[in-house]
Specification:
Length: 144
């Protein structure tokens, strides 16, 4: 049930992020979630999008684009919800490499994207604890 995240390596200069996002706009791609991590010379744009193939084509004109399986987790929008999820993963010895959040249209819900060292095991342990992970179709449904 992992979802597809695309990562694009961008030069860390003024206008590069704007150019990348403009390419997605021109391709008619809707960004569902976004994260940017930077270094002095480069940044990594991570996106969950409405159309991975259009995104790869659009961003591929200017940079390297990689697909990465990640999990998206639905949780209550309340204090401690993420800590609870992280504790469950820690107890199963699952490493979380990075996390970023995104919003949806349903009040009371919050969502996070996680890159973990074992997506299948993470989804299995979260399901056993009644925590819903999303698939690519769910992303479109929850984020209308």
């Amino acid at each position: 049930m992992a979802i597809t995240q695309l990562s694009a390596f961008l030069e860390n200069v003024p206008g590069t992020l704007c150019k990348a996002l403009s390419k997605l706009t021109d391709a008619g791609v809707n960004i569902r979630a976004l994260s940017v991590a930077d270094t002095k010379d480069f940044g990594i744009l991570r996106v969950i999008v409405s159309d991975t193939e259009k995104t790869k084509a659009a961003l591929g004109e200017m940079t390297i684009v990689r697909e990465t399986p990640v999990i998206a987790v639905k949780m209550d929008d309340k204090a401690g919800a993420l800590s609870n999820i992280l504790s469950i993963l820690q107890s199963a010895d699952i490493n979380v490499e990075y996390v970023y959040a995104f919003t949806g249209a349903v009040a009371g819900n919050a969502y996070v994207v996680m890159r973990v060292d074992d997506e299948n095991q993470a989804e299995e342990i979260l399901a056993k604890n009644n925590i819903k992970t999303l698939n690519d179709e769910d992303i479109s449904e929850y984020l209308k």
